[in-house]
Amino acid sequence: MQGFSRSEFTDTTRINAGRRMLHGFHIDLPLLLSLLVLVIIGILVLYSASEQNNKLVEQQLIRLAIAFIVMFVVAQLSPDTLRHWSPWLFIIAFIMLIAVLIFGEEGKGAQRWLNLGFFTFQPSELMKLALPMLLAWYLSEAHLPPKLKHVAVVLLVILVPTILVAKQPDLGTALLLASSGIFVLFLAGLRWFYIILSFILLIPTSLVLWFYGMHDYQQKRVLTFLNPESDPLGSGYHIIQSSIAIGSGGLYGKGWLNGTQSHLNFLPERKTDFIFSAFSEEFGLIGAIILLSIYGIIIARGLIIAAQAQDTFSRLLAGTITITFFIYVFINIGMVSGLLPVVGIPLPMVSYGGTSMVTLSAGFGILMSIQTHRKLIAS
Amino acid sequence: MARHPSLTIKDHFRETHLFQHRLLVMAIIIIILLGVLITRLFFLQIIDHDHYTTLSEKNRLDILPIAPIRGLIYDRNGILLAQNIPSFSLQIIPERTRDTNKTILELKKLIAISDNEIIRFNKLRKKKRRFEGITLRYRLNPTEQAKIAVNLDRLPGVKIEAELAREYPKGKLASHAIGYMGRINERELTRLDIARYSATKHIGKVGVERSYEDILHGEVGFERVETNSQGRILTRTPEVEPKPGKDLYMTIDIEVQKTAEQAFIESGNNGAVVAIDPNNGEVLVFVSMPTFDPNLFVNGIDRKSYKLLSTSPDRPLFNRALRGQYPPGSTIKPFIALAGLEYNLVTGHEDINCPGYYMLKTDDRKYRDWKKQGHGKTDMSKAIVQSCDVYFYDLALQLKIDRMHEYLARFGLGKKTGIDIRGEAPGLLPSKAWKRKAYNLPWFPGETLITGIGQGFTLTTPLQLSYITATLSNDGKMYKPRIIHAIGEPGVEEITIQEPRYVGIVEKKNPAHWKYITKAMADVVHSVYGTARKINRDLPYKTAGKTGTAQVFGLKEDEEYDETKIAKKLRDHALFIGYAPADEPKIAIAVIVENGGSGGAVAAPIARKVMDAYLLKDDK
Question: Measured between alpha carbons, how far is residue B372 from residues A191, B396, B600 in Å?
Answer without folding.
Answer: 128, 20, 18
